Amino acid sequence: MSLKHDFVRPLFHWRTSRAHAYRESPLNSAQDDNAIMPAANENGSVFANLKLADGSHLYDHFGEGFQVVYMAGGQGPQAAPEPLMQEVSALRAIGRPVTLHVLGSGDAAVEARADHTAYHVATDVLQQRYAVKGGEVYVIRPDHHVSARWQQYARGCLEQYFGQLPGSAGKQEN
After folding, report:
1. Given a cut of 90, is residue 107 above it in pLDDT?
2. Distance between CA atoms of residues 66 and 105, nearest Å
3. In sequence order, what E strands does the chain have?
4. Distance of CA 87 to CAs 9, 80, 102, 113, 157, Å?
5. What pLDDT sits at residue 173?
6. Which conformational region is residue 95 in: left (phi greater than 0), alpha (psi within -120 to 50 degrees), or beta?
7. In the 8-state DSSP scheme, what is residue 66?
8. Closest to 147 in 3D by CA, of 132, 133, 155, 137
9. How far apart are CA 88 and CA 138, in angstroms?
10. CA gap 61, 89 in Å, rounded
């Protein structure tokens, strides 16, 4: 809004204006590794954006719906586990708006593939920005807030997360 309307600009200051963290959101996973992972990029926080070598930002490549970000770490972005890609495909097949992004070390470039987009990012940038060790998975809401994260991908974790969302057919009501 501040980009289009002059009256809003004085209300924002770059040092004091911060995005709200939705730590208690019902969209956050109750069964992930959030409690044992570093506080940066915790559930409810805005996922840290990243400038890529081509001048674009990671957010520029996010589409509508949920984004699943897999941190391949030093293995390179071609190292996404096949079960993860299959799980994302299965979610899309039942109508879940999910896109897979894989970040791994290497020359900073973007490769669009049939089942995901691969990003080559310097290892030190991945470690500084996301505390990457390799294998981490993040689910990012459409508003770019983290809603689930795991230290290592485990088969079925995404299906479990999407099944617990409010309004999901698989959610158990108490």
Report:
1. no
2. 23
3. 66-73, 98-105, 110-112, 117-121, 136-140, 146-150
4. 43, 12, 14, 16, 9
5. 41
6. left
7. E
8. 137
9. 13
10. 18
The per-residue pLDDT for range 116-164, each reduced to its tens digit, is 888 888 888 888 889 888 899 999 999 999 999 999 999 999 999 999 9
* Separation CA 163–CA 173 (nearest Å): 12
Beta bridge pairs of residue 136: 71
15 alpha-carbon distance from chain centroid: 25
Task: Tell me the pTM.
Answer: 0.83
Closest to 130 (Cα-Cα) out of 38, 21, 36, 33? 38
Cα–Cα distance for residue pair 77/53, rounded to 1 Å: 15
| Residue 102 neighbours by CB distance under 10 Å | 26
Q: Backbone phi, then psi, for 93, in 5-degree steps?
A: -65, -25
Dist. CA 155–CA 53, nearest whole Å: 32
